[in-house]
Amino acid sequence: MSHKSPKDFFAPLAVGAPAPVREIPFRPSRAIHFFDPSNPKMVDKIPQMVGTVDVLLGNLEDAIKADNKLAAREGLVQIAQATAGLGGQSGPTQLWTRINALDSPWALDDLTTLVPAIGDKLDVIMVPKVQGAEDIHYVDRLLAQLEAKAGLTRPILIHAILETARGVANVEEICGASPRMQGLSLGPADLAADRKMKTTRVGGGHPGYLVREDAPRDAEGAYAYDADRFRFQQDLWHYTIAKMVDACATHGIYPYWGPFGDIKDTVACEDQFRNAFLLGCVGAWSLHPVQIEIANRVFSPSVEDIRHARRVVAAMGDGTGAVMLDGKMEDDASLKQCLVLVELADQLAAIDPKLKELYDGIEIEEA
Ligand SMILES: CC(C)(COP(=O)(O)OP(=O)(O)OC[C@H]1O[C@@H](n2cnc3c(N)ncnc32)[C@H](O)[C@@H]1OP(=O)(O)O)[C@@H](O)C(=O)NCCC(=O)NCCSC(=O)C[C@](C)(O)C(=O)O
Ligand SMILES: [Mg+2]
């Protein structure tokens, strides 16, 4: 296998294409809100969603009927051209799309239509069912050719969905396949099918995947093996999310939880999103307007976390050594964790005036 030299890695893949980025800038993307651009009721709601959600994503792949694929693609072009403040780094809300799978009859036309028509508006292209670096290389070169032809000055970034067993096995090489790689989302439904898991849901847990409390003993010391013991449902997705987070952090790109299909169970959706937030993800998908608020809230640090983090920063002075705060040891490494939260709060406050007010109003007691 041949390897590129670092200088080749950052050279455009087509004459006239924009120079690849050297760093993927952090842009808030707490909720990636999916809509079907061929559905008039959803499309009607898009203009008023601008500014209330970090990312609007025109979905062309699964959940779009085969008969509507063309209408969805054309609908997305119209929306991108007609909606102020959407995409292209100018507005508050990014514009992403999810193209069809690379082996489908639609993927090539998705790219060759969207890039010339709205390439200046599209911030990120999400590629589904990515199996390995070869899929990213294909899209990378094609995008460079299309960008050069369209005279674009800014490279469109690539986001891969991790939703096959092979994709999970190759997650490291996928993240490092191109300077365009922006991030990864977990696709729990396709991944479950590909792995031959026995679940039938889109994300979430399963009552059968559990650990049961040990059997108690009676007075004679005999075990009581009855079923009436505490059961603790386990997280089906922990391994994959953790693996994805490590791969993304290694490559300086961003990890996301994907969809949560039980729209009415807003409580469990919040749990799934919070687990992802705590493990290092920066956002999740929203499939229904009700999920936007959940993601915005969960992927923004809480006032309590920011108050604590700022107290640690203040108590740690130049950032070295160890101090006691509220009976706990704080040192260089706990400070670094606190700085992750403080920095995130600053980045979110810069685009979200309500959060800015909330974080600015935090008062810190003397340590
Ligand atoms: C779940 C559904 C069917 C419920 O749709 P509904 O119409 O039954 O819901 P509703 O509560 O009645 O809707 C209320 C209003 O909101 C509108 N609405 C509803 N949803 C949206 C939306 N997203 N954006 C904008 N507007 C929306 C809807 O049109 C309606 O408008 P109205 O009041 O004028 O009648 C619907 O919300 C929907 O189709 N959502 C998107 C589904 C989707 O994109 N799925 C694919 C991503 S998940 C995936 O692909 C898996 C993965 C990663 O690949 C893998 O794990 O493998
Ligand atoms: Mg899928």
Task: Give a structural overview.
- Keywords: Lyase, Magnesium, Metal-binding.
- The strands form 3 sheets. An 8-stranded parallel β-sheet has the order 9-6-5-4-3-2-1-10.
- The longest helix is centred in the middle third of the chain and has 18 residues, at 133-150.
- Helix 10 (266-279) packs parallel to helix 11 (290-298) and helix 12 packs across helix 13.
- The mean pLDDT is 96.
- It is α/β, with parallel strands linked by helices and 367 residues long.
- The chain is globular.
- The protein has helices at residues 6-9, 40-49, 69-82, 107-118, 133-150, 165-169, 171-175, 188-195, 238-251, 266-279, 290-298, 303-315, 332-349, 353-360; strands at 31-35, 55-59, 94-98, 124-127, 157-162, 181-186, 210-212, 231-233, 254-256, 284-286, 322-325, 328-331.
- The protein is built from 14 helices and 12 strands.
- The chain binds Citramalyl-CoA (CQM) and magnesium ion (MG).
- Magnesium ion binds next to helix 8.
Give the SSE map.
Elements: H1 6-9, E1 31-35, H2 40-49, E2 55-59, H3 69-82, E3 94-98, H4 107-118, E4 124-127, H5 133-150, E5 157-162, H6 165-169, H7 171-175, E6 181-186, H8 188-195, E7 210-212, E8 231-233, H9 238-251, E9 254-256, H10 266-279, E10 284-286, H11 290-298, H12 303-315, E11 322-325, E12 328-331, H13 332-349, H14 353-360
Parallel strand pairs: 1-2, 1-10, 2-3, 3-4, 4-5, 5-6, 6-9
Antiparallel strand pairs: 7-8, 11-12
Helix pairs in contact: 3-4, 4-5, 10-11, 12-13, 13-14
The structure holds Citramalyl-CoA and magnesium ion (MG).
